[in-house]
Write a structure and sequence with these properties.
By secondary structure, this protein is mainly alpha-helical. It has a domain of 107 residues. The chain is 71% helix and 0% strand.
């Protein structure tokens, strides 16, 4: 029998149980994480993210503006090209555009890791955004195409949503 965090109350598994409390639902959500988001973010993760951002800024000798553009270059390009990336998959083929997106994202990640200057790093992050904008919609379309049966499609979408795809899940460094 599974109990709540304090170990005092049993957690009910049925979603139709009228005696299930809000605490039970939140505990299960905290344990399972949100769909595609990993564990529910808390204060410790925020502090850790800020600490890592400070280490990256110091290690790369970035100004505050340089660090901001490192993040924003990816987010802006990804957001602007997401719909055209999906259309490219429709026109040129899902598999071809998916593989192009993976290739661009991988090569630009290598370029970003080896970037000698802030400008090169920002440019590589923008190319990562292009790759991600090609990768994200075609990955979902491929899952929907490859699993026409509704039951298997639901499972496949669940796996896809929980996958650690940096292109669509995390826009941070």
């Amino acid at each position: 029998m599974t109990t709540d965090a304090s170990g005092s109350r049993p957690l009910r598994v049925s979603s139709h149980d009228p005696h299930r409390t809000a605490h039970d639902r939140h505990h299960r959500l905290d344990t399972a994480g949100g769909p595609g988001h990993g564990p529910v973010p808390g204060r410790a993760e925020h502090v850790d993210r800020e600490r890592r951002a400070a280490q990256i800024r110091t290690g790369l000798d970035l100004s505050a503006a340089g660090q901001t553009w490192t993040v924003n270059a990816y987010v802006l390009v990804f957001g602007a090209l997401l719909l055209p990336g999906g259309r490219a998959g429709d026109v040129y083929g899902l598999r071809r555009v998916f593989l192009l997106g993976i290739g661009l994202f991988a090569l630009s990640s290598l370029g970003a890791a080896l970037a000698p200057t802030t400008s090169v790093l920002i440019a590589c992050r923008a190319v990562q955004g292009i790759g991600a904008a090609l990768l994200a919609p075609t990955a979902l379309a491929l899952v929907l195409t490859l699993y026409p049966d509704s039951r298997r499609r639901g499972t496949a979408l669940g796996v896809w949503a929980r996958s650690p795809v940096p292109a669509e899940r995390r826009a941070c460094c």
